Amino acid sequence: MQESVMQAWWDSSHMAGANAPYIEEMYEAYLDDPQGVSQEWREVFDKLPKVDGVELDTNHTLIKDKFRTLAAMGPLSRVGVSASSAGSNTHSDEKQVKVLQLINAYRFRGHQHANLDPLGLWQQERVRDLELSHHNLSESEFDSVFNVGSYAIGKESMPLGDLFKSLNRTYCGSVGAEYMHITDTEQKRWLQQKIESVEAKPEISKEKKVAILKGLIAADGMEKYLGSKFPGAKRFSLEGGDSLIPMLKGLIHEAGEVGTKEVVIGMAHRGRLNVLVNVLGKNPSVLFDEFSGKHDESLGAGDVKYHAGFSSDFATAGGNVHLALAFNPSHLEIVNPVVMGSVRARMARREYNSGNVLPITIHGDSAIAGQGVVQETFNMSQTRGFAVGGTVRIVVNNQVGFTTSKTEDTRSTQYCTDIAKMVQAPIFHVNSDDPEAVLFVTKLALEYRNKFKRDVVIDLVCYRRHGHNEADEPNATQPLMYQKIKKHPVPRALYADQLIAEGVISDREVDKYVDEYRAALDHGACVVEEWRPMTEHSVDWRPYLGHDWDVPYDGSISVTELKGLGRKLVTFPEDVKLQSRVNKLYQDRKAMIEGEKPLDWGMAENLAYATVVNGGNPIRLVGQDSGRGTFFHRHAVIHNQTDGSTYMPLQHISDNQGTMEIYDSVLSEEAVMAFEYGYATAEPSCLTIWEAQFGDFANGAQVVFDQFLSSGEAKWGRLCGLAVLLPHGYEGQGPEHSSARLERFLQLCADHNWQVCIPSTPAQVFNMIRRQIVRPMRKPLVVMSPKSLLRHPLAVSSLEELSEGVFHNVIGEVDDLDAKKVKRVVMCSGKVYYDLLEQRRKNEQTDVAIIRLEQLYPFPQEECAKVVAQYSHVKDWVWCQEEPQNQGAWYCSQHHFWQAIPEGATLTYAGREASASPAVGYVSVHNQQQKALVEDALTIK
Asked: Which residues are in the Transketolase-like pyrimidine-binding domain (predicted)?
């Protein structure tokens, strides 16, 4: 601020030196709420001059500094306010400021004194900001009336005593609201109005109170029934967190009333069986059969019952809502991005109307604080490629993780939910023994999510009545907690007593509801009144069922059509200026389309995408550098060098094309790939692709490969067509960026669970991509995609080769060799083929043939037999790979190789020696090894 302007204002005001600290406080109160200070002060601050067009209240730190600087100048004359009124108002104004600070303190820190723990074990630290004395106020002033500013109680002023009681009811009752960390003023004001206007405890109708009680009866009754019928069996009981059932049902009802059509839920195992039966309407008799060990043999390997998913329809006042509970392994929080991906796909079908699809994720208190995928998923929540319009996140806070209960052992923050503050999500802590408060924050959370399209968190503070599972003995590790739990009434009993005391219901009616629920379980009938048979809420998977991996298909496309699509790929508006290297690439692509140059990898890949969207299928391609391509080969997204805007030719193929989405993702593998898995399981017509920046980065998503992609169909019957591109190839770049760990994927191969391919030509990648969508079969595709082959002079194809429409799982000898003179056959996959081919040609060898295996799994036995047949006389067979002997395909696929070669032949290995590291770190050593393994493969002993 200009010195002269500030001095002039100071000189014409009453901001005398001794008053400076008081003025600072008054000004802070004004900034927080202009209506919270007297009109006289408001006029003073409203008249603050502007400097260079900037209002002074946006530079309050600078002003406060000037207050301090000028305070030493002594008393100055006051203009506009009489001296007599100045003296008389100073004391009351000062008290008014303190009252506003008291309100602000409760908004910021009231949650720290809230009654949140049903067991009363939490030892919250004393918060002096919430004490009257901290603000120079006392009970003797309770009858004094003060302006309450923006405190949304419906009154402009209140006696201090009434205000103090109201603040405690609002912020220190059964709800602890954290929202002042949000920087958006509109959101804060909205939340304040919603919470303060009803003092966090709105009136609830008798009907809703009875519905809450029935939900608690169901939650308790289900657990008691299972406990008596199957004693000692693992069920991961919900007992102690019973309010989750009426909470979820209330949330679904509220969502349905405002137009939600689908709800996707993700949760771990705690309370899952209860949710399945009492919310989604799973038939109890089916669950009891699962406990008894009965199963449908047609369902594959299956999974434990508390990992199972389920789908149903749920009747609400706004119409039926389709519910989907996602399948989830024991990796707890990993299901969250899977849910988000599924929701995003459902939103895409509904033209991205987030109000139609609601994600709900249910967390454990130790898991949400302890597992990194939570942070990754929060970080994705507002990004362009992964936003789902906000998620309602519920924490079933048992206050113990397995056997760990001490806060200093489970996290480094006060609350387990503090991770949510990274995206400024509001957090509502609530005592689960107050189900009406639970219902209030649930409704508030949904309204916030729908209005602001952001995540919101409910911390359902409860307890775990039994051990981690029903066979555990919790007293061994938490003796004090479980002594308390043993004496603590169940939530159903507490709430029933409350309603009886209120005259809402009689004890006879309570007993009736309990007996009716028990009878329903005895009959094995659905216990959810809102359950409805499913209608067409989800995509139809029937066309994709029952197909083998080698189902016949016609992927051919004419050269004429390819040229037409190719010309659209190299066409862009005149005002789009390309970077020089990109311009050269596009000029080359124009020549490729006109037949003047052979097609390289990037052009063939883009052409494949063009044919898919031209056929009406959508494509979603996601990775950390997918628009450009990590190795500068794809350039599907053009960046205008003039204004930084982007243009995607693939979005301009035809008027009726499928959507084309390419996103450079957040720097995550685990959450992003899990998101794409969820997307692919919800949208079979879409070609969904996740690309690792480097193939070894897939390590960061290993849980997704292990628990979902490789085994989801076997465990849960979940089909998925996700394609995974993993750049792989030994280029002397060191251990980390050479190998995509091919062996790990081959180790997981069984039951035709997925495809593992290593294409070696542009035509092969073109037809592999098309095959993934043209075939009616939906299986995951794992691709060891290339690096150096993207621009290798021999790795080129013609338009005619692309138009064939066939991906060759096996490619035989390409040179004109006399098969009868061949003495050795080398089998290989990927880049090493070209090293072998070039060296053999250099050696002018004609007695060594080379066969490429482009698909390692499912192993193409029949196709391989046809290629091998002409070498039935050869006894010397070699498998050659770049990877060390204990890695790559040698150990995992050797049995297939033996089966493929002629009877009586020998099979030897040519490659690097076994190694703990995927590759060496020195280029010179790499080159020596590469030369040696090629020579070894080609040298007939």
From this structure: 599-792
pLDDT at position 56 over 70: no
What band does 355 get if pLDDT is binned at 50, 70 and 90? Answer: confident
Q: Would 96 be classed as within a structural domain?
A: no
3-class state of residue 461 by DSSP: strand
- Exposure string over 819-834, b if 16+ CB within 10 A, otherwise e: eeebebbbbbbbbbbb
Residue type, 843: N
Distant-in-sequence, close-in-space partners of 87: CB < 8 Å, separation ≥ 6:
none
Q: Which amino acid is at 901?
A: I
Looking at residue 576, the DSSP 8-state letter turns out to be -
In a domain? residue 457 = yes
Tokens 């060390």 belong to residue: 884
Among residues 470, 497, 532, which one ends one of the domains?
Answer: 532
Give whole-number Cα distances, 101 to 29, 33, 130, in Å. Answer: 7, 11, 10
Q: Which of 824, 829, 821 is nearest to 937 (CA)?
A: 824
**Alpha-carbon span 721 to 677, nearest angstrom:** 9
CATH number for the domain spanning 626: value is 3.40.50.12470
Fill in the amino acid letter for 633: H
Count CB-CB contacts under 10 A for residue 905.
Answer: 17
Q: Tell me the backbone φ, ψ of residue 635, rounded to 5 degrees.
A: 45, 50
| Location of structure tokens 């009144």 | 529
Residue 303 has pLDDT above 80, yes or no: no
Last residue of a domain, one of 167, 193, 219: 193
By C-alpha distance, which of 245, 250, 256, 460 is closest to 358? Answer: 256
Distance CA 439, CA 433 (A): 11
Q: How far is CA 463 from CA 468, 481, 485, 864, 924, in A?
A: 11, 9, 8, 60, 61
- Beta bridge mates, 827: 851, 879
* Measured distance CA(435)–CA(241) in Å, rounded: 10
Taken as a whole, the chain contains a residue count of: 941
DSSP state of 125: P
Q: Which of 134-143, 188-197, 291-300, 532-541 has the lowest mean pLDDT?
A: 291-300
Spatial contact of 199 and 168, defined as CB atoms under 8 Å apart: no
Helix 20-32 / helix 39-46 crossing angle, nearest 10 deg: 90
What is d(CA 650, CA 345) in angstroms, rounded to the nearest whole number? 20
pTM for this predicted structure: 0.90
What span, in angstroms and rounded, lies between the C-alpha atoms of 367 and 369?
5
Q: What is the CATH number of the domain that holds 831?
A: 3.40.50.11610
Sign of CA dihedral 713, 717, 721, 722: negative
> How many Cβ atoms sit within 10 Å of the Cβ of residue 359?
30
Pair 341, 326: CB distance under 8 Å: no
Asked if 797 and 759 count as a contact pair (C-beta separation under 8 A), the reply is no
DSSP string, 731-779: SS--STTT---HHHHHHT--TT--EEE---SHHHHHHHHHHHHHSS---
Do the domain assignments include residue 90? Answer: no
Q: What is the DSSP letter of 209?
A: H
> Which structural domain range is residue 647 located in?
559-803
| Cα–Cα dist 709/341, whole Å | 14
933 and 789 in one domain?
no
Partners of 647 in the β-ladder: 638
Total domains, the chain = 5
Identify whether the C-beta of residue 854 lies closer than 8 Å to the C-beta of residue 795: no
Q: Reduce the DSSP state of residue 357 to 3 states and report it.
A: strand
